[in-house]
């Protein structure tokens, strides 16, 4: 298999490669069994978390036991068609996710301060 040859060659993986995958553009009604069927073909899975609330529907996190299995899954499943939707499979990057939440918090803080001190922005005029 391809994963065995990767391990034997002692291939150096890029720094963004890790065992945790972030999957977007999933059908909202996909079950965890279907996720295990799709992603389990590429190696042992430790955990799958499917988004259920309004903000996270259509997304999931898939955690593999082995980093090479995760790499193989990304290589094969990016663009894979599930229920007429093409999957977007990325390596989870905690720094990028933290930046998004920090930006949102900062925007909320700015809005709150503007309301508190009665400052209007050029958009409001």
From TrEMBL:
Pfam families: RRM_1 (PF00076)
Keyword Transit peptide: no
UniProt superkingdom: Eukaryota
Domain RRM: 19-94
Localisation per UniProt entry: Nucleus
One term of GO molecular function: RNA binding
Annotated keywords: mRNA processing, mRNA splicing, Nucleus, RNA-binding
Keyword Nucleus in record: yes
GO biological process: mRNA splicing, via spliceosome
One annotated Gene Ontology cellular component of this protein: catalytic step 2 spliceosome
PANTHER family: RNA-BINDING MOTIF PROTEIN, X-LINKED 2
Name the record gives this protein: RRM domain-containing protein
Record organism: Zingiber officinale
